[in-house]
Amino acid sequence: MGKVTGFLEIDRQVAKYQPASDRVRHFKEFTIPMSDSEVVKQAARCMDCGIPFCHGPTGCPIHNQIPDWNDLVFNDNWEEAIRNLHSTNNFPEFTGRICPAPCEEACTLNLEDIPVAIKTVEQALADKAYDMGYVVPQPADTKTGKSVAVIGSGPAGMAAAQQLARVGHEVHVYERESAAGGLLRYGIPDFKMEKHYIDKRVAQMEGEGVVFHYDVHIGVDKTVDALREEHDAVIYCGGSEKPRDAGIPGVDFAGVHDAMPYLVQQNKRVARENIDSTGWPSEPILAGGKHVVVVGGGDTASDCVGTAFRQGAVKVTQLDIRPQPPVREDKLAVWPFWATKMRTSSSQAEGAVREFQVGTLEFVGENGILTGVKCCQVDEKRMPIAGTEFIIKADLAFIAIGFRGPFENGVLKDLGDRLEIGVDGRGSTYVMANESDYRTSVDGVWAAGDVRRGQSLVVWAIREGRQAAHDVDKQLMGSTILPR
Asked: Does residue 33 have a cis peptide bond before it, meaning omega lies within 30 degrees of 0?
């Protein structure tokens, strides 16, 4: 906790943004950092609530010890607060920027809609760690002689690799793309998180002995069995990237795209990389001067909205099949769990037109080119309401309704029937491995992150990578000092 009476004396404040009219002109981060004294005040609001729901099980998936580091910040002990935060979270600069902060939803003060600004304090701590020179390699004192391969360098793969390297294993990370980060690098826009943070962590991990192998598609360029022969353990952290099939007529019109190719292209463009990458179309997708429609109401859809505005879109309309949620939830019925309520992302606040309880009937066009999106109102069962049809003008449309599993052209195809695959209620596939040990049906192969649990948050990926590393180390060495 922070100051005993802090929550009574200090108002909740979070970091502010650059004005929308300014930030849409660039792809850089636009959050205005708070001063140390302001951060200390926000940490002081952490109350003696008795049971800190903020750090589990309903709050933070990686069990950040939030009251502890709030108290340390309040007492001006930044070094120990940074050490405490890193003890549970390998990459707080990632989560401090892009996590939706379920910890704040679970905060006791959220019963009054004034939760502690946990995410703001976390980002400030993470950035302070760099400023104070605390993000340095922490190589193991002794080597175990064991070798581990990690497939995929997203947050799950990076977390697993770092944990295992720090206890002395030789760790090799195999990445399909030309740089590490997974969807953190190629899916999350730079205006939400600049990629130099990933580069700094990669440099730290290389200093700890982790070897990164880029442009290596496991299952295509190199078999999983070859990895099993070369290493004592293999952790599959390939992510969930296959777009969900919308089943909307007219998807073949020029101008209709899945969300990820669009976001990947722009991230590569910002990084001055070649936009022609494995598995994605290479023709430029640009929104400048166009009317854009985004189908979907989640984070990926919001990222398309913000990207389109920065490319110079004339108008952006976002379609959400769900009814418009209430502005304020029923706290006594929902708290401390994540609530369904009206939320407006920074991208949506830049001028998007949001349509709720609207179904997408078809994409319409002329001469093979998209001209509009035919929509209608839907009932509570998401069925079309007759007579409510309308057409929205569109030169460009993005389908952002989620992902349905890992790409088959890789590890899944390579291992075939040996790798047990599950299917959830929505038809999404995932690699079968339980949360107790993360072991798959293939001997010597573990799975963690979105490839196992389905599309989820970066904080869950970090948790699963850490926990998989715990079991791998225990399996290889008979015991482990790695936290779970």
From this structure: no
Question: Could you tell me which of 296, 160, 178 has the C-alpha nearest to residue 237?
Answer: 160
Q: Which amino acid is at 184?
A: L
Using only the alpha carbons of the chain, give its radius of gyration.
23
| Residue 70 three-state SS | helix
Give CA–CA dist 167/144, Å, rounded: 8
Q: Rounded to the nearest 10 degrees, what angle do helices 259-270 and 299-310 cross at?
A: 50
Residues 359-369 pLDDT 10s = 999 999 999 99
pLDDT digits (tens, 9 = 90+) for 435-463: 999 999 999 999 999 999 999 999 999 99
Asked whether 406 and 412 are in contact (CB, 8 A), the reply is yes
Residue 369 class from Cβ within 10 Å (0-12 exposed, 13-18 middle, 19+ buried)?
Answer: exposed
The pLDDT tens digits of the residues spanning 392-412 come to: 999 999 999 999 999 999 999
Question: Residue 477: in which H helix or E strand, if any?
Answer: helix 458-477
**d(C-alpha 454, C-alpha 223), whole Å:** 23
3-state secondary structure of 110: helix
> Nearest CA to 438 among 160, 162, 161, 180?
160
- The answer to whether the beta carbons of residues 364 and 134 sit under 8 Å apart is no
Taking the C-alpha atoms of residue 251 and residue 104, their distance in angstroms, rounded to an integer, is 39
- Dihedral in degrees, nearest 10, Cα atoms 96, 99, 102, 107: 20
At 431, the amino acid letter reads: V
Q: Are 260 and 280 in contact (CB under 8 A)?
A: yes
3-class state of residue 375 by DSSP: strand
